[in-house]
UniProtKB/TrEMBL annotation, chain B:
Residues 35-153 form the AB hydrolase-1 domain. This is Cis-3-alkyl-4-alkyloxetan-2-one decarboxylase. It comes from the Bacteria. InterPro entries: AB_hydrolase_1, AB_hydrolase_fold, AB_hydrolase_sf, Epox_hydrolase-like. The gene is oleB_2. PANTHER family: HYDROLASE, PUTATIVE (AFU_ORTHOLOGUE AFUA_2G14860)-RELATED, MONOACYLGLYCEROL LIPASE. Signal peptide: none annotated.
Amino acid sequence: MFGSNQTSPVAEYAATGEIERVYHEVRQTLRVRGINLIFRTWAGHKGLLPILWDTVRPNAETMMFEQSSDQIRAAAVELAKPLGDLGAKQQTSLGPSQAFQLHEILKLYHYINPKLLLIASAVRQGLDGELSIKRYSATEPAERIAPGVPAEMAALEMEDENPSDEQLQTLFSDITETLSLRSINSDYRSLALWPNYLDAVWRNLKPKVQSPAYTAAADHLRERSRRLASELPYPVPLSRTRLEGEGIDFDETLRSCETFEQLLPGLILNIAMCLRDWQPDDALLQSPFPATAISPNSQNDERPEFTGGAK
Amino acid sequence: MNWRDYQALQKVTNLGDRFVSYVDEGSGNNTDDDPVILLHGIPVWGYLWHQVLPALATHHRTLIPDLLGFGFSDRRDCFDRSITCQAEMIDQWMEKLGIAQAAFVAHDIGGGVALRLATLFPHRVSRLCVMNTVCYDSWPIELMLQFGHPGAKSLASASKTITSLGVALKSGFATSPNSEVMDGLLAPYHTEVGKLSLIRNAAALNTNQTTEITDRLHRIEVPTLVLWGEDDKFQLAKYGKRLATDIPGAQWEPIANARHFVMLDQPTPVATHLQSFLSATTAAVNSV
């Protein structure tokens, strides 16, 4: 993911110090129970994740960010329709508990992936110097969402990146090779907890992801995300000078953002296609975990506070 | 039956904002029979019972819930997993399924849950069989105490942690279990979420929750069988004998050539003893 200087992503259990602090804030601010690959990857580069997160966090806390993510999600559902039904659920024999838990995982990714795309777009445009202008004055703060993970949200659970099961290894290899991935994404690792389902998903998805219609739909989502990111209320002041001053490779960072921005629209479409086997389109247009607003003037004491992790 | 086939049998029910996965097989020979509920212990899940399930389900409606935080029940890091809470969960779960009363067959901390039900929710328990159960101050064992340290989550990846646990658990068997069974027993915990859940489960082990019911054991009035792998190094047979003494009329039945995981060491004798006990006591319960 990070070219020649790639380091290993930092797993949640292995996070310490500033990385642990950021992971906690990501979970609370983005309202998700786990840490996705984009953050784990950035955490693998010394000093990078705290800078990127602290810069993008003011926007991620806003209702506008939530609503922009909702728009991307809804657009993905609309764009998924002409790509056709996946039918993976119908092709997989799942027990009632398995089906329930799989559906909950799909809902989780349906919720979080648009937020990750928006962050990738905001950071990339920030690095390009496009989002350095302050849009809101201090007396006019943007409306914020109440932080914290929705009580009904599933755990972000996933199979090991290097599974012991040979069939799963083969499946992961096919996915990474087909999509030119350096690491297998969290989405596929989560669906791999039900290997037969992932197999059916990929069997049906593979021809679609290589079609011009799919590429066009992903491009549309990416453009939508870029436009929405450019309209977020707070500046994202990232620059070559700033990053290099912290000893961070600016070009590598830019490439990573571009990679995630390239990758995430497809993942969002994939989840939308999966979920169309489970729920009617009208239901999928709504956020699975709607956020509530808190007073724009709420002070820092309502923000997620990290108190642990002194290691 | 491999663990994935077993998992596919599981149904699910919501209890508030938590969910419980469970197997519900068989229908019983007659409508007067109450269901049989099998409870597993730590660090396993309902799959523990897969070798005795077919025999039991032939004659009884047989239910096997995964306790909260275990197996494929809710494993999120946001609730208590103590045996006190597990007993309350079983009470709610039975209510949700419309089961007024059941025969309980329970192992390890599942036995602690069943003993709490029998003493504190006695209307839920028609008959009781405990196997190599935690009781009195017999627990937590050192292995689980170390595993339950909150810092254990940062020591190693899930795969390494669960592999080590699997090696340690082998001393709970009289003979080496086959790899399919061993893998299956720990399968739900090989993810980071699973590992953390198991650590939380271990952290919730609390001897007070069995010592506090010691003085109530003599009030258990239902037919009781204490079935014990007599070579168990985790839960010593002396505790089983003491239970059989303290619970009025309890029957003590040691199983030879069996350690902690008695239903896997000796599935046929265990199934036979259970079937005999359940058949004999069905008549007794129905005649009251």
